[in-house]
Write a sequence for this structure.
């Protein structure tokens, strides 16, 4: 079950990516199911891209950005949070668990906490029924 | 446009932790599966020969490259080791070490690395080359803004290198003279226009308007951006904090010295106060230790006591400085008759009068001056909190090319941090001027012509104010200001904007490749 789990993580290349780097230097590692996609800022992500990730077969989508009050590009993670909340509504409408998408905020020094949150997210997604949308949405 | 990707992979066994068999398995998986990719195996890039090999690498038909390695690119000293035949925007350096799991089996490890490299190649195959633009300087001079010793020192050392320098200062500077140095004293900076290499600065010198040009600007202190005037009808002397040392040397013995956190404190309507704590406390400590006055008081709104500052507060208190905190609702007022300041003490809960023949305060700072907010990409509510974000930007690192922030202009800091920072900025400026041209990043966000519906959403969203409306009432992005965050791309309702270094097809291809749906 756990081998097939796919979580797409959109990671902002500023604070969130340095958090992951800091964690990997400290010996913590990304969960196996997490596939990292680096973006310049989480504010760059549009709703279709987030939905596409689920449509392409991801079981969960994590959007990892800077802390809102300390966002590298000032507004990025705030805008991303709004979009994630909207996607949650859309997912509810089409009877998919809204918990499959989550916004995670991380400071560049809190790598360990980010990994912990990602692992918790992974275990929550793993507990959900299997989502077989791969190829279903064109 | 889909290009062919060449994959350059380091087989460093020490860093990757993979055995030779695993490495071979990985290479086979990469070679047999991705038809468009050529795989080249090199040794660890921390070796000099490997870097040379990578630099001269050329494969027929491949116009882009993924470099996979097990260390962070910053750990490798030399910068120019990436393939020189390929434009930098089409090279993706992947640090595989962050995907290493210690407990995982080598098979799943290999699978993970292959997936990461393949996703990166898929994204890169959709990338377009981005061209940088060279902009020659229109102006040949450097402008230094600031009135303290450090500004004079900086201006002199830049002028010494044969670069024509202008020093704009709020205070009169009769002594400062040097070759190639033009001094514009008793002047206030009022406006800033232009791009790096061709800044136009509007000043008013002794009431007269002046228009100055500069290729780059060194902002040593913002205190030049506004003037200081003592309250009318009082005998109180106001000494700018920067000049307190020379005032103290003069041998004056006033009854009471009051140090204010900011001169704006006395202005009941002003709401923003940005104290220069270190400088203020050092000066107060000196005044109390030398018994310059019977009573040395510091009146401040909030006491920022963290780290080293706490020690300085304690030292100042030990040498006899009294501290009074005031509430924002009841600000200190000047009593003109007996030269005192009445302030409601927060601890006592009642109003007290403090003798104040001399008020020492940082000359009113207005860092939220719109001209610099816009230029320096600062948030619109540029207050103390935003000011403390300074350390994030790094030493002598400015958010805008061609403008260098030093000392208190950046954020409040200790002198031993500020001084090396100044040296570093001077060195940067000399390099910047010698080069003679400024490289603007290729337009990172581009608006497609004809699609814009002039809704102003991008103009409102852009944190860097790079999106503006042009004369024909269409949105336009100024490439020199754009930082490539892509916030405008996502908010545009007409889907008219595309981010050059992270396009929609690129993200889509990476998502598809990493979730296993290969197109």
């Amino acid at each position: 079950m756990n081998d097939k789990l796919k979580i797409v993580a959109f990671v902002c290349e500023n604070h969130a990516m340095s958090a992951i780097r800091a964690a990997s230097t400290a010996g913590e590692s990304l969960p196996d199911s997490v596939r990292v996609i680096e973006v310049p800022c989480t504010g760059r992500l549009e709703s279709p891209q987030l939905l596409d990730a689920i449509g392409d077969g991801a079981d969960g989508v994590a959007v990892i950005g800077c802390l809102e009050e300390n966002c590298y590009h000032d507004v990025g993670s705030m805008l991303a949070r709004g979009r994630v909340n909207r996607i949650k509504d859309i997912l509810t409408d089409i009877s998919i668990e809204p918990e499959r998408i989550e916004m995670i905020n991380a400071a560049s020094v809190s790598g360990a906490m980010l990994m912990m949150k990602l692992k918790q997210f992974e275990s929550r997604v793993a507990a959900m029924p299997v989502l077989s949308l791969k190829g279903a949405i064109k | 446009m889909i290009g062919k990707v060449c994959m350059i992979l380091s087989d460093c066994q020490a860093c990757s932790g993979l055995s030779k068999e695993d490495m071979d398995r990985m290479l086979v998986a990469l070679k047999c599966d991705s038809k468009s990719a050529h795989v080249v195996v090199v040794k660890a890039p921390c070796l000099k020969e490997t870097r040379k090999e990578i630099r001269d690498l050329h494969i027929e038909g491949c116009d882009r490259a993924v470099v996979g390695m097990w260390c962070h690119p910053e750990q490798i000293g030399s910068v120019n080791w990436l393939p020189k035949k390929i434009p930098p925007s089409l090279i993706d350096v992947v640090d595989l070490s962050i995907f290493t799991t210690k407990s995982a089996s080598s098979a799943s490890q290999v699978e993970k690395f292959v997936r990461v490299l393949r996703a990166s190649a898929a994204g890169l195959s959709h990338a377009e080359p981005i061209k940088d633009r060279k902009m020659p300087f229109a102006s040949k001079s450097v402008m230094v803004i600031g009135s303290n010793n450090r500004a004079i020192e900086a201006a002199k050392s830049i002028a010494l290198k044969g670069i024509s320098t202008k020093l704009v200062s709020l205070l009169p500077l009769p002594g400062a003279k040097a070759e190639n140095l033009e001094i514009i004293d008793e002047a206030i900076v009022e406006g800033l226009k232009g791009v790096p290499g061709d800044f136009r600065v509007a000043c008013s010198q002794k009431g007269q308007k002046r228009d100055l040009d500069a290729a780059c600007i060194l902002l040593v202190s913002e205190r030049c951006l506004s003037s200081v005037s003592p309250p009318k009808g009082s005998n109180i002397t106001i000494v700018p904090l920067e000049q307190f040392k020379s005032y103290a040397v003069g041998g004056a013995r006033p009854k009471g010295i009051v140090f204010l956190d900011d001169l704006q404190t006395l202005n009941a309507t002003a709401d923003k106060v940005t104290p220069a704590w270190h400088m203020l406390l050092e000066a107060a400590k000196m005044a109390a230790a030398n018994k310059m006055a019977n009573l040395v008081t510091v009146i401040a709104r909030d006491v920022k006591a963290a780290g080293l500052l706490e020690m300085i507060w304690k030292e100042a208190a030990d040498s006899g400085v009294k501290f009074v905190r005031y509430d924002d609702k009841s600000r200190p007022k000047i009593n003109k008759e007996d030269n005192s300041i009445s302030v409601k003490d927060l601890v006592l809960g009642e109003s007290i009068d403090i003798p104040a023949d001399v008020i020492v305060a940082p000359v009113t700072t207005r860092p939220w001056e719109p001209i610099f907010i816009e230029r320096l990409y600062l948030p619109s509510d540029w207050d103390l909190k935003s000011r403390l974000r300074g350390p994030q930007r790094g030493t002598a690192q400015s958010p805008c090319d061609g403008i260098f922030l030093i000392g208190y202009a950046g954020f409040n800091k200790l002198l031993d941090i500020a001084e090396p920072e100044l040296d570093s900025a001077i060195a940067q400026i000399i390099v910047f001027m010698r080069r003679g041209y400024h490289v603007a990043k290729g337009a990172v966000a581009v608006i497609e012509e004809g699609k814009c519906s002039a809704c102003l959403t991008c103009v409102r969203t852009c944190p860097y104010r790079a999106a503006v409306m042009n004369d024909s009432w269409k949105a336009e992005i100024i490439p020199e200001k754009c930082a490539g965050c892509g916030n405008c791309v996502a908010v545009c309702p007409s889907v008219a904007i595309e981010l050059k270094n992270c396009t929609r097809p690129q993200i889509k291809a990476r998502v598809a490749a990493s979730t296993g749906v290969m197109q």
